[in-house]
Design brief:
The strands form 2 sheets. A 6-stranded mixed β-sheet has the order 1-2-7-4-9-3. Strands 6-5-8 form a 3-stranded antiparallel β-sheet, with helices on one face. Residues 1-46, 171-181 and 211-221 have low confidence and may be disordered. Helix content is 27%, strand content 17%. Helix 3 links the parallel strand 1 and strand 2. The protein has helices at 12-29, 37-42, 58-68, 79-91, 118-124, 127-140, 222-228; strands spanning 50-52, 70-73, 146-157, 185-191, 203-204, 230-231, 239-243, 248-249, 259-269. It is built from 7 helices and 9 strands, in the order ααβαβαααβββαββββ.
């Protein structure tokens, strides 16, 4: 993920205006509606991250993605599946390679082995995740023709790792505000370990994927984001699915052990497999 620019402190008046706009976006995200002024003024605290059971349908997952940009599916697979997938990656493609960057992460040029990476393949090709992602692509992937697996990574957060700054992936380089709620793709993080606040569960700002949000304000309004963000706590075998443009960042790992996630990137591409024109 690309790192955001340095934070700047906003003028107090601007700060309050952005709080109002941010809460309006949150209100829409949680279903209050764009004209629920009274509800917006009475609302206190962050929007609630959508959490769905393992039996959730693709349509339910897609609805959460389209409205809030992030959703957790709890206990989607057994702990044995994610443990096996992690072991396959460590013993195979990542044995002597960087677990976050480089050739080993690239699935187009280096696709999963059907036998040696069978458990990884189960996670990558989860039918509910793929179906939901395709439904979401039709809404927020205007101009794209299909979705393809792009990368696989291990997200290992060592003990003592501090909070990371909130950021967007790839679109960090786009001048804000974004004119359209276009998404280059989706990310999925599978919990190899339990994700808790203590061990640095990834934090998200629900609703920040949409052009309804003042997408340029985040570089100077860290306090606002701290109020609106929520940690994606989830047990082993769960998955959090989110647009790359949702503001997110790791929590601080105050635990005594590392926290590991298995990350897939899915890209929305044109017929030729490239980025759609105008993106």
């Amino acid at each position: 993920a690309a790192s955001p620019g340095q934070e700047k402190h906003a003028h107090p008046g601007e700060h309050m205006n952005k709080i109002a706009v941010g809460l309006a976006a949150v209100a829409i995200c949680i279903g209050l509606g764009p004209f629920a002024v009274t509800a917006i003024h009475s609302y206190v605290g962050p929007a609630k991250l959508h959490r769905l059971p393992s039996t959730a349908t693709a349509s339910q997952v897609a609805a959460a993605l389209k409205s809030c940009g992030v959703v957790v599916i709890e206990n989607r697979v057994g702990a044995d599946i994610v443990a096996k997938a992690y072991a396959e990656l460590v013993a195979g493609r990542f044995k002597d390679a960087n677990v976050r960057f480089g050739y080993a992460t690239r699935l187009l040029k280096n696709p999963l082995h059907p036998v040696n990476e069978s458990a990884v393949k189960v996670l990558l090709e989860d039918p509910v995740v793929l179906d939901a992602a395709e439904q979401a692509r039709l809404v927020h992937g205007e101009g794209s023709a299909r979705m393809v697996p792009w990368e696989v990574r291990l997200l290992i957060l060592s003990p003592g790792t501090p909070f990371s700054e909130f950021h967007r992936d790839v679109v960090d380089t786009t001048k804000p505000p974004l004119q359209r709620p276009l998404q280059w793709g989706l990310n999925a993080i599978w919990a190899v370990d339990n994700f808790t606040v203590q061990n640095g569960a990834t934090r998200f700002v629900p609703g920040s994927h949409s052009a309804r949000w003042p997408q340029g304000s985040w570089t100077g309004d860290h306090d606002i984001l701290e109020t609106l963000a929520e940690s994606a706590e989830m047990p082993t075998g769960s998955v959090v699915l989110y647009y790359a443009s949702v503001l997110h960042g790791t929590g601080q790992n105050s635990a005594s052990a590392k926290r590991t996630g298995l990350n897939f990137n899915y890209a929305f591409v044109d017929e030729a497999g490239g980025r759609p024109a105008g993106w």
